[in-house]
Fold this protein.
Amino acid sequence: MLKRARLALNMTLEEAAHALNAITGGATGPSLMSAWESGRRRTGKRNRSGLCRLYRERPEVLFVHQEGAATSVLETSGSAVVVKVLTS
């Protein structure tokens, strides 16, 4: 969802990192942004808050892949259709 949110704003990784740093005062680079998007790294509290502000989205939507919750795009868009994922 992080990548989708970034692409929805038509931002490159570099632009998103720069904008996030302006919000948080941090020093996040494009490679770390990519690692968050792919799930290779987890975000910290300050960056989660900054990303929610940047992308104007709730944390339960942006970070579902980090929490392991099974939330579908249909659920988060407000559709009456609910999709459940079964895992073993």
